[in-house]
Specification:
The complex is a heterotrimer.
Chain A (H helix, E strand, L loop, with lengths): L3 H34 L2 E2 L7 E2 L3 H8 L1 H32 L6 H13 L2 H12 L5 H8 L16 H26 L3 H9 L4 H30 L2 H6 L11 H11 L3 H32 L1
Antiparallel strand pairs in A: 1-2
Helix pairs in contact in A: 1-12, 3-7, 3-9, 4-7, 7-9, 8-9, 9-12, 11-12
Chain B lengths: L1 H36 L3 E6 L4 H17 L4 E6 L2 H13 L6 E5 L2 H8 L7 H6 L2 H4 L2 H7 E2 L2 E2 L2 E5 L2 E6 H6 L8 H13 L3 E3 L7 H24 L8 H16 L16 H5 L3 E7 L2 H4 L8 E4 L11 E3 L2 E5 L7 H12 L1 H11 L2 E2 L11 H11 L3 E3 L2 H4 L2 H16 L4 H17 L1
Parallel strand pairs in B: 1-2, 1-3, 8-9, 11-14
Antiparallel strand pairs in B: 3-12, 4-5, 6-12, 6-13, 7-9, 7-10
Chain C lengths: L8 H29 L3 H7 L11 H8 L3 H32 L5 H13 L6 H11 L5 H25 L3 H9 L4 H12 L1 H17 L3 H5 L8 H6 L9 H27 L4 H4 L1
Helix pairs in contact in C: 1-13, 3-13, 4-7, 4-10, 5-7, 7-10, 8-9, 10-13
Classes of the chains: A mainly alpha, B alpha/beta, C mainly alpha.
């Protein structure tokens, strides 16, 4: 028999046992395999052929890679600002006892549950240059000059797609903040008010620090979602016209599954992974510091 | 207290959640047990997800079941685009479907060369297809004189037009390039856009490239370009862009912002009289509004250089059996069924497509089918289509190039240089 | 939140109306989806996508149910989603408990592992996981999908739950430990109830994600009789012809379960079953 102390030491590993095993078999293993694949040429049918760093060399010369990278950055920036601002505002407004709060919450959450295919379709119609609602409205209100083929004009196509993503994301962020607001200590806010803190001060100095855990989650999710952004692009433009709305995940998917260049696709995936890690590093290092301090 | 309730709800959810899994598992076990007892299972996956072909195929499946009461047929339809991705999993899995739909020509050849497709020369022999299928179709299905593929049906491409518009402006059907340009000019001056096109999914633009390149440079050059044996920066290719395609776009012979529309979304321009023509395959008929269908007619893409042989696009779809098929006997039975005169006649009649078996009496064809068939029969060379004739990766780059050109008609040289770089990379690999 | 009476009523009304207007604009795409679902394909082809319908009927909903195969795809979706959801939540709460409550060698490593895995674009796992499932003999079974969904969502759930559990005061558990409660008991009797709001929130999200997943069944499932509703509905998209009205009606019908889950669970994470009240 193990003594009680050793047993106690083993407990955390016992808890981790099953989840980690499953995670290793289904995620980490295939992930490492993908890293290996990024150094091969593989059509998914015959055995992969090792070609060294050639995929990466090609990738860094590929114009589409840079377009996609730039688009992803734009996506991240827009995703970390607009949905968070709108979602938080909505959460704070709807957290009060206003008539119909439930209906409002449901309305903003609704886009989130709607399938991406339908979102993509409906928005494509809204964006249609000839009879689309957006151009119709622009023409009616005398801004006809702004009317364009939103999904075919290379200058605006990316923003048009990101708008749809934001439309879906706001409700999601709102829900997370609504949950976060539940644990906010009302007494602190009231105390600050009594002390004569302005609304802005209360917001930044009292409320936001308390919401920090939620904000971290929201930011992490926003980054992950932006870098993994795929479905909407795939449904609405497939990266077109001529790759102008391509994002990395979509670029990878097309190369790997449409063009059957699995090795090249794996190389793109590795790059996405590395970029994600860079973005998330600030968070992870904070955790690591906490760990060592603790 | 409240927590207890929540926990019981969660526990109930857990049980509810897991129950179907085990029920499902058992059912599955039972089904597999059943399968083992009754040997004759055949699994067939197809990409006929368009409404009309899907209906016809469902009827065919019923026919097959009636004729083979002892056979258990498992038929799955997979969305056309998804199928193209799933097929790699199918072909390399240890239990693939027994019969699959696929494209004739290069796309089938690719898998055959990898040894993933079953040799079905015996089926060709037994079913008498060596006689009842034309040499062209036989060659299309063979590698080293062994047959691996069964061509099923095909359709033609042509310039479709609305007869009302042509009548209104008293327009004759153009046979040459100059005539076509005159027609376009006339339509344009009357406020009608000559061509509608929806290039959101790019292949509609590829059709224009196929036809212009074949008419200007001949099918032989075209197909060598597809196979990576000619270069994209060849001055002959540049000529297609700068002398033919570009001017048409610049003169406004196509609708505005075509990349905003899927191909079918561009049809309303034709039915409401804003545009007159559409370079399209015969499947346009399935999407054309019923009340306007009687005004839809077509003509052969006009000749540009009479000294050049005539090439046409006529994509052929068919079937093959994966090498790992669990039940080759039944798979072959199903294949024979698909290739039979009876089934082919049914498809020709119900679907309006053209079929491959020579034994099929031409009387099953309607006027349209006969006219389309005539166009293809008169051709010196029949191509499959841009994205079927060249490799998938080159098709992707090429079609992006076409889209870029559509937006920047003065950039042909630069775009073609880029394509040439891709060609070298992809074909040398 | 309590009374703030320093804002004039008129301003309140204006702001309220503004909120109503924004909400209505927000819902426009959904209204369009609903209206389109009640049109016919022929009507769409001849009058375009954004025309008002000539006739309204619910036929396409029946079509989606019957011809679109929703009656068989929808149950499949549940057979896949429910076990995946339950397993993910269960396993990730075990892992998260360990990561949040104990100090041990490799703790940071395991935590990074879970977070790192969520960064990976999952599409790249498609073929390796297909090979794995084929080798394990679960290709073309529900298990293949449940396994990958469970595994893939573990990372995110562990991440969220661990963060949440960190906020639970240690004293609560210490006292239980002194009372002689086993670790498993603490996890089940104390940690789980305390983390319910987080559970409710991620359960909603996870349900949405797993239920709406479209790509995994493509590579892991061969026969349409096992397809979930998303992949099943996609088979209405032809190469050339799309069955728009049926696709949209089907997709709207398929949204209902997610909506119900949201409405049901939102009570929990917004009703105040939170840490604050337990402090």
């Amino acid at each position: 028999m193990l003594n009680a102390k050793t047993r106690y030491k083993l407990i955390p590993y016992a808890f981790l046992g099953i989840p980690v095993t499953i995670y290793f078999i289904w995620i980490i293993g295939p992930m490492l395999y993908s890293f290996y694949l990024s150094f091969t040429k593989w059509d998914g049918l015959t055995a992969p052929e090792f070609i060294g760093t050639k995929n990466y060399q090609m990738l860094f010369q590929d114009e589409v890679f840079y377009i996609s990278l730039f688009n992803n950055l734009e996506w991240i920036i827009l995703f970390m600002t607009i949905p968070i601002a709108l979602g938080l505002t909505l959460a704070m407004v709807l957290n009060r006892d206003i008539p119909g709060a439930k209906t409002f919450k449901a309305s903003f959450f609704l886009p989130m549950v709607l399938s991406l295919v339908v979102c993509g379709l409906v928005w494509s119609w809204l964006y249609s240059p000839h009879s689309g609602l957006i151009n119709e409205v622009l023409r009616r209100i005398g801004l006809g000059a702004l009317a364009t083929g939103w999904l075919s004009n290379p200058k605006v196509v990316m923003e048009a797609v990101i708008t749809v993503a934001i439309w879906r994301q706001v409700g999601y962020v709102m829900v997370l903040y609504l949950a976060g607001l539940q644990s906010v200590d009302q007494n602190l806010l009231d105390a600050a008010e009594v002390d004569g803190a302005s609304a802005l001060q209360r917001f930044f100095n009292v409320l936001m620090p308390q919401l920090a855990p939620v904000t971290v989650i929201v930011i992490v999710i926003s980054i992950i979602d932006s870098l993994r952004a795929f479905d909407l692009v795939s449904v609405m433009t497939r990266g077109g016209p001529y790759n102008q709305s391509s994002v990395l995940a979509n670029f990878m998917y097309i190369e790997a599954f449409n063009n059957y260049r699995m090795g090249y696709g794996a190389a793109i995936a590795v790059i996405i992974f590395i970029i994600s890690l860079l973005f998330i590093m600030f968070y992870l290092t904070r955790i690591a510091r906490e760990e060592t301090n603790a | 207290m409240k927590n207890k309730i929540v926990i019981s709800v969660l526990a109930a959810l857990f049980v509810l959640g897991m129950a179907p899994l085990f029920a499902g598992g058992q059912q599955e076990g039972a089904a597999e047990g059943g399968q083992a007892a009754e040997q004759d299972v055949v699994v067939y996956n197809s990409y006929w997800s368009d409404p009309e072909p899907k209906r016809v195929e469902a009827e065919l499946m019923e026919m097959f079941k009636e004729q083979n009461p002892g056979v258990k047929l498992i038929h799955s339809t997979v969305a056309h685009e998804d199928f193209k991705q799933a097929i790699r999993a199918y072909l390399t899995s240890s239990a693939p479907p027994d019969v699959l739909t696929w494209f004739a020509g290069n796309r089938a050849r690719f898998f055959i060369d990898k040894g993933l497709i079953m040799d079905i020369s015996d089926v060709w022999e037994e079913a008498g297809w060596n006689e009842s299928y034309s040499k062209g179709f036989r060659a299309m299905s063979s590698v080293d004189d062994k047959q691996y593929f069964l061509p099923g049906n095909w359709y033609w491409w042509a310039v479709y037009y609305d007869t009302r518009v042509f009548d209104e402006y008293d327009i004759e059907i153009p046979k040459t390039w100059d005539e076509l340009m005159a027609v376009c000019e006339k339509l344009k001056s009357n406020g009608v856009t000559p061509f509608t096109v929806g290039t959101k999914y790019r292949w509609t633009a590829a059709a224009w490239f196929d036809y212009l390149n074949m008419r200007v440079n001949g099918p032989e050059f075209h197909i060598n370009l597809m196979l990576g044996k000619e270069s994209y920066d060849d001055p002959r290719v540049l000529k297609v862009f700068n002398d033919y395609w570009g001017p048409m776009i610049d003169k406004g012979y196509f609708v505005e912002s075509p990349a905003s529309y899927a191909w079918a979304e561009a049809i309303p321009f034709m039915t409401n009289g804003d545009a007159a023509m559409y370079l399209m395959g015969d499947f346009i008929r399935d999407s054309y509004p019923k009340e306007d269908l009687e005004y839809l007619d077509f003509f052969r893409f006009p000749i540009i250089d009479p000294s050049v042989p005539v090439g046409e696009d006529a994509p052929t779809d068919g079937y093959f059996i994966p090498k790992n098929s669990q039940n080759p006997e039944m798979a072959k039975k199903l294949l024979k069924f698909f290739g039979s005169k009876e089934v082919q006649e049914y498809v020709a009649k119900e679907l309006g497509r053209l079929v491959t078996n020579n034994k099929v009496d031409t009387s099953v064809y309607n006027e349209n089918q006969l006219k389309g068939r005539e166009i293809v029969n008169a051709a010196d060379y029949v191509a499959q289509f841009y994205d079927r004739d060249t490799t998938p990766e080159m098709a992707d780059k090429g079609m992006n190039g076409f889209m870029e050109f559509w937006q920047n008609t003065d950039q042909a040289e630069k775009i073609l240089e880029k394509l040439e770089k891709s060609r070298q990379q992809l074909f040398e690999e | 939140m309590p009374k703030r009476n320093n804002v004039p009523l008129a301003v309140k009304i204006v702001l309220y109306l503004f909120l109503v207007a924004v909400t209505l604009i927000w819902l426009v795409p959904i209204f369009i989806a609903i209206i389109t679902s009640m049109r016919t394909n022929a009507d769409i082809m001849s009058h375009g996508f954004l025309a008002m319908p000539k006739t309204i009927d619910l036929k396409s909903y029946f079509e989606a149910w019957q011809r679109g195969g929703l009656h068989k795809y929808l149950p499949n979706s549940f057979i896949i989603t429910m076990p995946s959801l339950v397993l993910t939540l269960l396993l990730s709460s075990l892992g998260a408990y360990s990561l949040a409550r104990f100090k041990f060698k490799g703790r940071t490593f395991f935590y990074f592992l879970f977070v790192g895995g969520t960064m990976l674009p999952f599409q790249i796992l498609l073929l390796p996981v297909f090979k794995l499932s084929d080798a394990l003999g679960i290709y073309d079974t529900y298990f293949a999908l449940i396994a990958i969904h469970t595994a893939f969502q573990l990372g995110f759930c562990t991440f969220v739950l661990r963060n949440y559990m960190m906020t639970v005061p240690v004293q609560v558990m210490e006292s239980a430990r002194i009372d002689g409660c086993t670790e498993l008991g603490i996890w089940g009797k104390i940690m789980l109830p305390l983390t319910l709001p987080a559970f409710a929130a991620i359960a909603t999200l996870e349900f949405t994600w797993i239920f709406n997943d479209y790509i995994w069944p493509l590579v892991l499932i061969r026969s349409s009789e096992k397809m979930p509703v998303t992949t099943g509905l996609a088979t209405l998209q032809g190469q050339y012809v799309q069955d728009w009205t049926v696709i949209i009606s089907g997709a709207l019908l398929a949204t209902i379960p997610t909506l119900i889950v949201f409405i049901f669970l939102q009570r929990y994470f917004i009703a105040g079953l939170t840490l604050g009240s337990n402090k």
